[in-house]
């Protein structure tokens, strides 16, 4: 069980190109082409908000356990001191936008961000696998393993300016729209939706798919009426 930043078959990420089923000069073709021009051709499996929320749900198996913590990878050892976490009870695992927050007894918080290529997996305790894990959280019967995780921090200061999570339950669409309306009016709408301080959790893939569905170009200049009529729809 793994949330990962590469193709399902384990191969290197490949480009996802604009769809070709629509007529070549249709509105939908132009919308999708503009989205890909703005954000670039997005690779398969790049972690976005839904990936992080699924990982958080799978990692719940460790909540309430006193976990052993290891940092096999040298970059992880340079980022955090595992001794500060080792032997503590993991109190919660929470997804916020593209971030995973692990809260341990004693008020210690670990933040993980997968960027483009990281992944979390949950496996039976002690299961052998190829490669060098970055971080291992080992419980009684299962363990959470971070692979290729470029961001590990023992604080959550980076989240102070984070916008509302688009996958919160329920999502605060009013707060999202308020932030959209107060954003720089010279910015394109696609830029605004990717800004994690406005809406947290949207990445290139869901931006392109949402704007395709809304039949809206990401290069539309931001305006109050655009945010009012299409912001919540695109954020979904």
Identify the notable features of this structure and list them briefly:
four-stranded antiparallel beta sheet, 236 residues, Helicase, Ruva Protein, domain 3, 28% helix, alpha+beta, single chain, 9 strands, 7 helices, disordered N terminus, N-terminal domain of MutM-like DNA repair proteins, 2 domains, five-stranded antiparallel beta sheet
Overview of this structure, please?
It contains seven helices and nine strands; from the N terminus they run E-H-H-E-H-E-E-E-E-E-E-E-H-H-H-H. The protein is 28% helix and 18% strand. The two termini are 26 Å apart. A hairpin with a 2-residue loop joins strand 3 and strand 4. It folds into two domains: 14-42 and 161-235, Helicase, Ruva Protein, domain 3 (Orthogonal Bundle), CATH 1.10.8; 49-159, N-terminal domain of MutM-like DNA repair proteins, CATH 3.20.190.10. With 236 residues, the chain is an alpha+beta fold. The longest helix has 13 residues, at 27-39. It has helices spanning 27-39, 49-58, 74-79, 173-181, 189-194, 204-214, 224-235, and strands at 2-3, 68-70, 90-96, 99-104, 108-113, 119-124, 135-138, 142-147, 151-153. The chain has a five-stranded antiparallel sheet with strand order 1-6-8-7-2, with helices on one face. A four-stranded antiparallel sheet has the order 3-4-5-9, with helices on one face.
